[in-house]
Write a structure and sequence with these properties.
By secondary structure, the protein is mainly α. 76% of the residues lie in helices and 0% in strands. The chain starts with a helix and ends with a helix.
Length: 144
């Protein structure tokens, strides 16, 4: 087995466990000892077999984050931590995580926070990664 097959097998084993963003997988392959060129060839081969789909992974990731009661800023932070900050510029995040969906997730998170002062509730929502406007809308809807 040559080196490129070794890295391809490694990537397939990782993908069997869960979905990865392309850049996230590239970093793991390089950490395994591949050169950037070998990693690029492995990624190319994975794409040829349609094993990688950043759109699908992003949608799934957003669903998980929304279910956890987190906002769009949290999503951006996590993508940056995963080394996928290029996704932030190449995708319109509101297309994948619409504002109404963020507001609904903020309302859900708000329902778990209980009663306290309005400004503290907004602060707690913002600290969970919600945009200020989504936090304020969720708070107004709660008061109705």
């Amino acid at each position: 087995m040559d080196q490129s097959d070794k890295y391809f097998d490694f990537a397939c084993r990782l993908l069997a466990g869960r979905d990865y963003f392309t850049e996230e997988l590239r970093q793991k392959i390089i950490a395994k000892g591949a050169t950037p060129e070998e990693a690029a060839k492995t990624i190319e081969k994975l794409n040829k077999f349609k094993y990688l789909d950043d759109d699908k992974v992003l949608k799934k990731f957003i669903t998980e984050i929304s279910a956890k009661g987190k906002g769009i800023n949290y999503l951006k932070q996590k993508l940056y931590e995963k080394g996928c900050s290029a996704l932030l510029s190449s995708y319109n995040m509101t297309e994948f995580y619409p504002f109404e969906e963020e507001c609904a997730a903020a309302e859900k998170a708000l329902s778990k926070l209980g009663k306290c002062e309005e400004n503290k509730l907004v602060s707690k929502l913002v600290s969970r990664g919600f945009s200020l406007s989504a936090a304020l809308i969720a708070l107004k809807r709660r008061e109705r």
